[in-house]
Design goal:
By secondary structure, the chain is of the alpha+beta class. It contains twelve helices and 13 strands. Helices cover about 40% and strands about 25% of the residues.
């Protein structure tokens, strides 16, 4: 499999990677970095993790003038795609896609041969996180269970390029957390490969759960109200620290409080209040990994004015106090995730 990316204004390729298609558990994981800076006119950072059958790309770009990038994969691939930027116009051969990117959204797609033309506006901070898998690697990672997504699986077996879902879906806190863990992995050698492959599988699970089990509209919720409820969820996802009250959220989406409360629970399986708490607690867990963070600092950064209220919410959510979490982080992280931290 050959993966290459080129900025049309440049002579040299930005990315040029060649790997085998077959998944071998004992293959090495290699790393490479691209770092280009041309004053304020051009800034590109791209970190790559590479093994047979898998390439992980973490790329940030900023340009002072509009640019066009061509991105190609010459063989069959399954791509776990995570977009962290707005206003990027993308055209993909043989795949219908939304014209402009939406920040913090994700999807999975299969392509027999992938060629994308990406138009990047000036002064727009670009951030893409993509995991490119050969069909064999993907086949192994889902344990050969094509029934996980029958229509998508059928398209893969028929060599028909397609998305797992027609629309990009908003990140969940779990997806954000696993991406953060991958980006901040400090392990080396065989342990890093083991860790990254475990996290890729975990990330895929969260994607499949989000996409395949998208809440179905209930009979009593019409299409207009359903889209208003999705809008409410997005508002909370975007700023759960300064989350609006129920009345304020109701006004923001132009839907009465009764429909908001009842509809949110029906569509997303939780109340508005519980969803805000979940987002804040996930954020708190991330903040506590900085050992310099105090409980009061984290409480404030998660939207709590009263530390005692934060501590009570944290203990109710995780089963132990934030003070205990700070003291016993390594043990607690193992308990929460079931993943042994090897150091």
């Amino acid at each position: 499999m050959k993966i290459k990316s080129k900025i049309l204004a440049h002579e040299k390729s930005l990315i040029q990677i060649e790997i085998g298609d077959t998944h071998y558990p004992k293959n090495y994981l290699t790393q490479e970095n691209v770092n280009i800076k041309n004053g304020d006119a051009e800034q590109i950072k791209s970190h790559h993790l590479i093994t047979q059958g898998m390439v992980l790309l973490d790329t940030q770009m900023l340009f002072s003038t509009p640019q066009t990038i061509i991105f190609e994969i010459d063989q069959e691939s399954v791509v776990m795609n995570f977009i962290c930027c707005n206003n990027v116009q993308t055209h993909i051969d043989e795949l219908e896609t939304e014209k402009y990117s939406k920040k913090n959204t994700h999807n999975i797609f299969y392509a027999t041969k992938y060629k994308a033309t990406i138009k990047i506006p000036a002064f727009e901070q670009i951030n893409y996180f993509s995991i490119i898998l050969s069909k064999d690697f993907y086949y192994n990672i889902i344990n050969e269970d094509w029934e996980l997504h029958e229509k998508f699986s059928k398209n893969i077996l028929l060599k028909k390029s397609s998305y797992l879902t027609s629309k990009y879906i908003a990140f969940t806190p779990a997806i954000q957390w696993v991406i953060h863990e991958i980006k901040n992995c400090k392990r080396q050698g065989a342990l890093k490969k083991m860790y990254i492959e475990t996290k890729i599988k975990e990330l895929l699970i969260h994607q499949l759960e989000t996409i395949i089990t998208i809440p179905v509209q209930k009979d009593q919720i019409d299409k207009y109200d359903y889209h208003k409820l999705l809008e409410a969820k997005q508002i909370l996802d975007n700023d759960y620290v300064h989350a609006p009250t129920l009345a304020e959220l109701s006004r923001l989406i132009s839907l009465n409080e009764f429909k908001l409360k009842k509809g949110f629970k029906a569509c997303f399986g939780t109340t508005v209040k519980s969803y805000i708490i979940k987002l804040r607690m996930e954020h708190a867990k991330e903040l506590f990994q900085n050992k310099a963070s105090t409980v009061s600092d984290v409480a404030y950064k998660c939207g709590y004015k009263d530390v005692s209220h934060f501590s009570a919410a944290f203990k109710n959510f995780y089963g132990f106090s934030p003070q205990k979490f700070k003291i016993n982080w390594d043990y607690i992280h193992f308990w929460i995730t079931g993943v042994l931290l090897l150091s």
